[in-house]
Structure formats: C-alpha cells, structure tokens
Write a structure and sequence with these properties.
Layout (H helix, E strand, L loop, with lengths): L6 E6 L4 H16 L8 E6 L5 H15 L7 H9 L1 E5 L21 E6 L6 H10 L8 E4 L7 H14 L5 E3 L7 H11 L2 H4 L7 E9 L8 H7 L1 H18 L8 H13 L9 H4 E7 L1 E3 L2 E3 L17 E6 L11 E6 L6 E8 L18 E7 L3 E9 L9 E9 H4 L8 H11 L8 H20 L5 E4 L6 H8 L9
Parallel strand pairs: 1-2, 1-4, 2-3, 4-5, 5-6, 7-12, 8-17
Antiparallel strand pairs: 7-13, 8-11, 9-10, 11-12, 13-14, 14-15, 15-16
This protein binds 6-O-phosphono-beta-D-glucopyranose.
6-O-phosphono-beta-D-glucopyranose binds next to loops.
Amino acid sequence: MTTAAPCDLILFGTLGDLARRKLLPALYQLDRAGLLHDASRIIGVARDGLSVSEYRQRVADSLGKFITKEPLDEAVVERFCARLSYCGIDLAELEAYAALTDHVDSSSRTVISYFATPPALFPVICDGLASIGLTEAPARVVLEKPLGHDLASSKRINQHVGRYFDESQIYRIDHYLGKETVLNLLALRFANSLFSSHWDHTAIDSVQITAAEQVGVEGRWSYYDDAGQLRDMVQNHLLQVLSLIAMEPPTRLDAENIREEKLKVLKSLRPITVSNVRDDTVRGQYTAGFVADQKVPGYLQEEGARSRSATETFVALKVHIDNWRWSGVPFYLRTGKRMPEKRTEVVISFKPQPHNIFYETLSELPANKLIIRLQPDEGVEIQMLNKVPGLGKQMQLQTTKLDLSFFETFEHHRIADAYERLLLEAIEGNQYLFVHREEVEHAWRFIDGVLAAWHNSAELPKNYQAGTWGPVAAVNLLAQDGRQWDES
Ligand code: BG6
C-alpha cells in the first residue's frame, strides 16, 4: 500500500495519444497494485466539452483497448473511474483556468500537474495554473518531451516554467529512465564488484548503444520531420542511457547525487564539429522495403509526407567522453526507424587478452562482451570463451554465452511499464528518475553542435532500405576503427 499522501493529479491533454495509451493505463495499474491513496483524484483536462460520465466511459474504453497483457479487473476499473473528473477548457485562454478550482483542493492535497500536451502550451498552462494559485509548493509539475527543439528553445521553456516552479517541484520525463532494465543498469554497475572493478578504459575497449525500431513515423510525419531521429531519440533517451553507463558511482541513490554524476558525463562529451562530423557521424533516411515480411513505404512516401526532406530517420555517432575513466574508449550510438527488429541494448566490449597462449587453434582471442538487453527480450548476457569438451591434443575454444533472461528468472514478476514507475515516483515526490534542467541543456548543447555540423557539411542523409540496419556508412563508422556492430 502507498505511503504517499493523497494528491490531485491534473492531466493536461488527457484525450491525447500519450494519456490514452500510457498514462491512464499506468495509473490504473498503480490503483490495482494499491499504490494510489484512496483519496487521490485525477482531473482530466482537454478542450472538448465532455460530461464526467462521458469522460469516464472514454477512459474505460482506453483501458480496455490498451491494457492487453492481462484481463481488466472490473472492480478496479470502477474504483479508478470513480476518481476521475473532467474539466473541458481551452488551454490557450488564461481566464478559462478558473474552472479548475472546482475540481482541485490544494489546501488538503498535493496538486500535481502533468503536461501531456505539445510544449508550445507549457507557458500558458503555467500562467493559467499560477493565476489560480496552483504553482506554489508543494505543487509539482511533470513535463513531457520534447523539451525544446534546440538549446535556445529548451532554455525558453525551462525559464518560463522556472518562473513559477522551483527546480525541486519540476519532474522532466524521459520515459527510458522508468524502464526496469534501464534501472537495472544501476544495480548491475553498483551492486556487483565484478563489473565495477572493470568499468573503465583499462578493461573496456568500446561501448555500443543501439535503439532500433521496426516502426516508421506512425502517422506523425510533420512532427517527426521537424525533429528527426537525433532530436527524437539521441538528445534524450540515448544520452540518458549513456550517462548511466558512464557516470561515476553516486554517493547515494538519490536525485541530487545521481543527477550530478550524469551531468558530469554530459559536460564531458567531446563536441562534434565540422572537423569530425564526417568521420564520427552517419545519418540515414529509409526507402521502401520489407519489415517483418511486410512491404513498407519509404520515408518520403509515408502518409502526409512531402516529396523532399533531408530529415534523418537513422543516426550513428561515435562519441568520446573526455574524462579520466573513459579516455580513449569510443561510445558508438545507433538508432533508427524501420530497422529489421525492435532492439534496445548496450554492448560493453572488453579489451582482448594481452597474450594468446592458444594461438595454435585460435589466432585471435575474441574479447569478452557484456550485453545488456534493455528491450524487448530483457536480460543480461556475457560472452566468453570456453574449452570445447574433447580429448583432442589441441584445445578447441568456442565463444559461449552466460545468459540471464529476465523473463525466465523473474517469471512471476510483472515488468511494469516505464510510466507506472515514473508516475509513482512523481506522486511520491522522488526526483531521481527525472531529468534536471542542466542535463537537458547540456544534452542540447551537444546535439546542437551535431546539427550545426550537419548543416554546414552540405552532405544529405544516406538512403537505407527499410528492414536493414541503416546505411553502409554506419558499418564503416566502426570498420574504420577495426570494430563492428554487435548483431548477434
Ligand atoms: C519516443 C519517441 O520518445 O520513444 C518515439 O518520440 C519512439 O519516436 C519511442 O518510437 C521509443 O520508445 P520505446 O519505449 O518504444 O523504446
């Protein structure tokens, strides 16, 4: 059962895709697990004029549609829907916010405002909340991405929100930080001396982070075309994963210490500029092809597409972290749409043995690899050499896997969706899985550098066929260093 005090959670953008697919199902799951206080309430806010019973019906329909892994518990649905109220207002109209006061009681509860709306509305929602006194501590605000389009716009958003909310009241979402397996990176690194004592340039040769998706732009071509894969995936999710992999051990598992260490990593990223952009980056755009045996259109033939665009749907980067621990260790990042499979993983390649006593049977000893599968087949794998059993005079060696599958090992545990964890932490007032303003801004500083360098190097994204691992140049990015992407 929850220990958190009751709250009033205002869900701005409650009829949108994110709220219907993710947030409301996540809140239902928290309710089902007994993690919502009996007296906590949820106030949906959107422009449509709906009665509360219409809204409850819509939410119940969304739960039915998007909770597919287990049957709905009708008693919980009923209890959950009884918490819901609805306030139909035009978010752009400051005066309209007064209507919210009938739904919220800030004198006896913590008010948490969740902005699941386009960021262009964040400033006016802040103004509106301030006009009815709902920004004063202990009120909290949860902000969805994208937090800006570049450093300047991100600063504008942060400044505006910062006018009303102190940093300790602001919860910036990066949903990767709520994933079980991303959290497990902390356990893996800081609870196991086997890894922590080998976590630097003396033992590690290179690191790969891959986030591949089979989906294309999913009906949001205009939004995506304005963003591109670098802003949509690297600025936030990949750089957050990289920070967790690379950061120094925090003193404690709390927001201040973890965010401080992640920030130091982001500050140490070597800038990508015109001088290294050709060698260290690859961008691609998909053409028609086959994904999971289905024919799929090219990026420029997707619904709503323009006939020309230089937006990248694939990015590969070689990133250096200029600090003592990671000196000389490249981090290769790769992410793309319409890849052959959905796969998010981190591959740590260790240095090879300095001397090979098995040269007669194996001229080069493959190095050990630690593969952390973040999704969908969550698990941890170690690749190592073993002797193949047999009486032959010479030792035959073979790469074998120590494979821990989360699904098998924790078969009786439900893997919660990232939003369940994040909503729970926001309700309980724990910020350690949320991104600090400075992290967002330093990540943008790095990304702006890449974008500017791409802009100045007149090169366009290279084509790759949907259903492949990106342009050939991405293979060369590693081949030029004598390495290759892990596709095992
Ligand atoms: C979102 C991006 O932040 O993350 C999407 O905007 C992307 O384009 C999604 O598809 C991927 O999330 P996940 O959890 O499926 O890896």
